[in-house]
Amino acid sequence: MVQNPTLEDVARAAGVSRATASRAIRGAGKVSSAAQELVDRAVKDLGYVPNSAARSLVTRETGAVALVVAEPDERIFSDPFFGAAIAGVVEALGPTDKQLILAMRTRNGGDERLERYLGNQQVDGVVVISHHDNDQFLAVLRERAVPTVLVGRPARPDAGMPYVDLDNRLGGRLAAEHLIEQGCTRLATITGPLDMPAAQDRLQGWREGLEAAGIEEVAMSEGDFTPRTGRLGAQELLATGERIDGVFAASDMMALTALQEFEEYGLRVPHDIRVVGFDDSAMAEDSHPPLTTVTNPARAMTGEATRLLLALIKGEEVEEPIVLTPSVLARESSGA
Question: What residues form the membrane-spanning segments (predicted)?
């Protein structure tokens, strides 16, 4: 066997030109099935390993794609939404030779490190999830023309970035309609962080659902999608002294701790107060009582976003936005 075989060695062993061997190894197409088979056999027989560094000099590609989660690490590793989101990217990259890099903001919320890394041609493209209104690194990506796809609509209509989203406005409205159908008339909500488009849209849809039924919102508490603010939000709602018979929490993580807080206060769920969450996390079905929730297919959204990104990296035009439709999974917590 040739030691440290080169591309020329592969071409010679396969009986094809160097250009054909290169295209076959890169999967670049325009290679006959017979030539592809000859090159594949030569690569295996010779033990040839493509030189990714040399390839990057020609293609100007790094072979890496970044998934940017605009949240600190303690939230990423505690919220099942992000695990599903990462799985969607990994699945979509599976047939490619792209390596996934996970990037997140620091615990103090600074974006400087992200901006330096992403703006310095370290990756071929970026998928961004959980972005906020004031995220400065998005402007850096736009200025440096880094191929980028957002999961969730951009805060600015002129952002100029393709995106995949859930119809969060419809999701909020469905939550309102479901609680009203269960007989609730004294309704309150624990929102997500209102500097995030997803939380804004869920709140807007929720209030549209109430307005259509002629029902006024009794109380609201702003959370940040985490368990801690679900508990604090429930405490704030109870502290108003208002009689509340239905609550929509804009994430399952908040809904589950709010449910616990209500029961510790002496309210029976769903007999005294009904609760609806958002995300359809695994914990929702296993909670006691099982949590009614609005679906939020994180894996499907990031998979679609990654496929769009791969097309952008190739220089192709992409269709956007892609907006998925939520539904309500009715369970015991809402009296269903």
Answer: none
